[in-house]
Automatic annotation (TrEMBL):
PANTHER family tied to this protein: PERIPLASMIC SIGNAL SENSOR AND SIGMA FACTOR ACTIVATOR FECR-RELATED, PROTEIN FECR
Name the record gives this protein: FecR domain-containing protein
FecR protein domain span: 111-204
InterPro entries assigned to the protein according to its UniProt record, in alphabetical order: FecR, FecR_N, Ferrdict_sens_TM
Gene3D superfamilies: 2.60.120.1440
Pfam families, per database record: DUF4880, FecR
Length: 334
């Protein structure tokens, strides 16, 4: 199997499907292990594919409690070493036990993640949605359109091609339309204070629902930042940076020149542990790196070491301060 950036999920799905048919041969087991160890993204994709296998056929018919039991019952047997590694990775990357499809009176389907959870949802037409932590979408299909509403958070959309049935994602006052592509839409206000659209492959059209701003066509490796103050701003995104921006799919957060204050706000989306920065000068320090989204304390210790700061913790608060500032907490984590 050949691993290219956009095909990792497909390769992971193929491995999971192969394991589901029958036990792997010794040669196949060695090949899978080698693929998993070759790139951290591979294991994240493998865990997501396993989660999809465990829930796809039963998600629409099960209540949340029954889904818990079905998930455990449907996981295929594996060698102990990979099972342990899979279980640890799955806990950090994706949780589906209490999350499933919810039908509302409007006939639509709602999918949601809790804080710290990542969920990949297969749709009826072959498309898929990957939901970031603390996110929610509404899915409503008709014969002529595929309508998605991003109600909260961030999601990646892998769209099955169907020119006669456009796939439209609405986020606040912005519509993103595609017929077959891969793109992410975010309401997390990390950079733009509005809607962010990031295209991984293909072409999408970005429009303002009210018609105040002229429509914009966006191609792969470009980002659109849309809000009422500046309209729709377009900027290029190098391939490596694009993959880093989507690192949340593997339970990671990537920063490339972001301030500590921005990073602290991002970690709060994945953990109840709050990073507190009282000094604006400290908050304005810029960082570069890839960090586990579920480990804000580890992040704080790492940046403190590299920037010459002090880390203090009390309960669910972690403070970052300069060494010459008065200690705020009695308990130091240095």
């Amino acid at each position: 199997m050949r691993a290219d950036v956009n095909g990792i999920d497909d390769i992971a799905a193929a491995w999971v499907a192969r394991e589901d048919r029958a036990p792997l041969t010794a040669e196949e087991t060695a090949s899978l292990d080698a693929w998993l160890e070759a790139d951290a993204r591979h294991f994240g994709a493998y865990a997501r594919a396993q989660a999809v296998l465990a829930r796809t056929d039963r998600a629409r018919a099960l209540s949340a409690g029954a889904m818990d039991r079905a998930f455990t019952a449907n996981v295929p047997a594996r060698p102990a070493r990979r099972m342990l590694r899979w279980a640890v990775g799955l806990a950090a990357v994706v949780s589906v036990l209490a999350i499933g499809v919810q039908r509302q009176d409007d006939g639509a389907e709602y999918y949601a993640t809790r804080k710290g959870e990542i969920l990949r949802v297969p749709l009826q037409d072959g498309s898929a949605i990957t939901l970031d932590s603390d996110s929610q979408v509404r899915v409503s299909y008709s014969d002529t359109r595929r309508d998605i509403r991003l109600l909260q958070g961030e999601a990646l959309f892998d769209v099955a091609k169907n020119p006669g049935r456009p796939f439209v994602v609405r986020a606040e006052e912005t519509d993103v339309t595609a017929v077959g592509t891969s793109f992410a839409v975010s309401l997390t206000e990390r950079r733009s204070g509005g809607v962010e659209v990031l295209v991984r492959e293909g072409i999408v059209d970005v429009t303002d629902v009210q018609g105040v701003v002229a429509p914009t066509r966006l191609v792969a490796n470009y980002r659109a930042l849309a809000n009422r103050s500046h309209g729709i701003r377009i900027e290029p995104v190098p391939s490596d940076d694009l993959q880093q921006q989507l690192a949340w799919r593997e339970g990671m957060l990537s920063f490339n020149g972001d301030t500590l204050s921005v990073a602290a706000a991002q970690f709060l989306r994945y953990s109840d542990t709050r990073i507190v920065i009282d000094d604006p000068l400290v908050g304005s320090r810029r960082i570069v790196g890839l960090y586990s989204a579920s480990d804000p304390l580890g992040f704080a210790r790492s940046v403190a070491l590299s920037l010459g700061l002090v880390v203090e913790q009390q309960g669910n608060e972690v403070r970052l301060r300069s060494p010459d500032a008065a200690p705020h907490m009695a308990r130091s984590m240095q």
